[in-house]
């Protein structure tokens, strides 16, 4: 894109307000200043005097020129949306993919920023709801201009925990993260056995939404299924990574994708039969001697015709899959000819709360061994995400997508967003008791932001 660096990622810091229980314990001393040359912000923090447990080196910290903006406690979600997300909606309407991440320790305001809690107050819509509303308005205009009702929003909502994904629009159905032979990552549900021996493995459900009100209801219903548990801060912390995908689609495109799934379902039993036939023939052609060795069976000749017939039938069904995939590509191209918006995506990732065990924990909270293990897995995922973002920003030859299921799933979105802008918002608490967690959160944002600013 002219006038824009490739793979642009902006880093933002958002301070949330103190709550009533934090105010009596003091507040982090903080400040920020903007570098006139780079237009980037430096953030500085210092521990209040009442924190005695820190070393002299830990009592203050200052970032590099890493942040594109600092969002103060008095700014509501609508103000955050206008600064961070609204400027990239034109990119999405040109068919590009833009990613948004909320990172921070438990209780710092990630979910409030990404999703919000007051769904009746437009000023407090989370970023995903505010973006959906603006996108829906834009698509209404495109449909009116093109005299069609074909362009809508395809919604997918799921959460990741370890190697599983839970489809929040399908009764929290458990799906599995797998890398296919084509090296693409797939999220598939349990295998379903259908009539005539067909076997179907459903992908994450896509809900087609033709109005903002419909999308808002679907998204609210899905988010009710999100799992929370005890963290080091409070007892209702998000312990999974929630991913909200919005894609500009058409009715014909969704139908073409369903046809691909249907053809794949028909191929599965045929392919399995061809494999079984080959194995059976090879086993019959061998016998085991008394000393355990396998030698050719002199009394059996491999039925090559049987193998060839099974492989021919398998090839026919593979051809049907290819035809369905080619049809999907043709449908996409036709829709793009009507308007380039088709395929544009907004990806919102509300990351699980980072665990900083050096910080002071909430009163009366005790984690179970299972919850501690979840915390370690979350930190592993967050470290992997940081390394992927840094490797991409620095144009490294190897991007460590396989380091965690989270980065495996996000790979397609990262690769699709190479010519568009994305953002990470680190959310931080100004409460003195969360000083260590706040410092670690800002360090994470500083490392990611600096790598992106210094790339190339």
TrEMBL record:
PROSITE patterns: KINESIN_MOTOR_1 (PS00411), KINESIN_MOTOR_2 (PS50067). InterPro entries: Kinesin-like_fam, Kinesin_motor_CS, Kinesin_motor_dom, Kinesin_motor_dom_sf, P-loop_NTPase. Pfam families: Kinesin. Gene3D superfamilies: Kinesin motor domain. ATP binds at residues 104-111. Belongs to the TRAFAC class myosin-kinesin ATPase superfamily. Kinesin family. PANTHER family: KINESIN-RELATED (PTHR24115). One of its GO terms (biological process) is microtubule-based movement. GO terms for molecular function: ATP binding; ATP hydrolysis activity; microtubule binding; microtubule motor activity. This is Kinesin-like protein. The keyword Acetylation does not apply. Keywords: ATP-binding, Microtubule, Motor protein, Nucleotide-binding. Residues 8-451 form the Kinesin motor domain. It comes from Penicillium citrinum. GO terms for cellular component: kinesin complex; microtubule.
């Amino acid at each position: 894109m002219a006038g824009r660096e490739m793979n642009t990622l902006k880093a933002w810091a958002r301070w949330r307000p103190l709550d009533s229980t934090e105010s009596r314990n003091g507040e982090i001393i903080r400040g920020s200043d903007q570098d006139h040359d780079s237009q980037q912000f430096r953030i500085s923090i210092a521990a209040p005097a009442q924190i005695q447990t820190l070393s002299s080196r830990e009592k203050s910290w200052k970032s590099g020129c890493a942040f594109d903006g600092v969002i103060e406690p008095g700014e509501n979600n609508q103000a955050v949306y206008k600064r961070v997300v609204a400027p990239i909606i034109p990119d999405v309407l040109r068919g590009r993919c833009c990613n948004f991440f909320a990172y921070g320790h438990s209780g710092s305001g990630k979910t409030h920023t990404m999703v919000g809690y007051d769904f009746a107050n437009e000023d407090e819509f989370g970023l995903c709801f505010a973006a959906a509303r603006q996108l829906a308005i834009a698509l209404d205009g495109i449909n009116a201009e093109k005299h069609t009702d074909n362009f809508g929003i395809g919604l997918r909502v799921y959460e990741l925990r370890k190697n599983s994904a839970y489809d929040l629009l399908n009764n929290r159905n458990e799906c599995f993260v797998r890398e296919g032979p084509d090296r693409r990552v797939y999220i598939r549900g349990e295998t379903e056995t259908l009539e005539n021996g067909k076997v179907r493995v459903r992908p994450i459900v896509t809900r087609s939404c033709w109005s903002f009100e419909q999308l808002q209801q679907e998204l609210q219903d899905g988010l009710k299924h999100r799992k929370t548990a005890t963290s080091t801060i409070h007892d209702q912390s998000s312990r999974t990574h929630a991913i909200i995908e919005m894609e500009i689609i058409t009715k014909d495109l969704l139908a073409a994708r369903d046809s691909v799934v249907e053809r794949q379902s028909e191929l599965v039993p045929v392919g399995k039969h061809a494999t079984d036939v080959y194995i059976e023939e090879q086993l019959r052609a061998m016998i085991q001697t008394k000393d355990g060795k396998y030698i050719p069976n002199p009394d059996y000749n491999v039925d090559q015709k049987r193998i060839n017939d099974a492989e021919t039938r398998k090839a026919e069904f593979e051809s049907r899959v290819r035809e369905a995939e080619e049809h999907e590509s043709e449908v996409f191209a036709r829709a793009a000819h009507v308007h380039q918006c088709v395929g544009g995506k907004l990806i919102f990732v509300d990351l699980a709360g980072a665990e900083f065990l050096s910080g002071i924990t909430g009163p009366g909270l005790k984690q179970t061994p299972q919850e501690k293990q979840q915390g370690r897995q979350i930190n592993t995922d967050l470290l992997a995400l940081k390394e992927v973002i840094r490797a991409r920003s620095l144009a490294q030859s190897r991007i460590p997508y396989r380091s965690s299921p989270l980065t495996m799933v996000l790979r397609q979105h990262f690769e699709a967003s190479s010519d568009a802008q994305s953002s990470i918002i680190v959310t931080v608490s100004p409460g003195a008791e969360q000083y260590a967690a706040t410092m670690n959160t800002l360090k994470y944002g500083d490392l990611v932001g600096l790598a992106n600013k210094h790339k190339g």
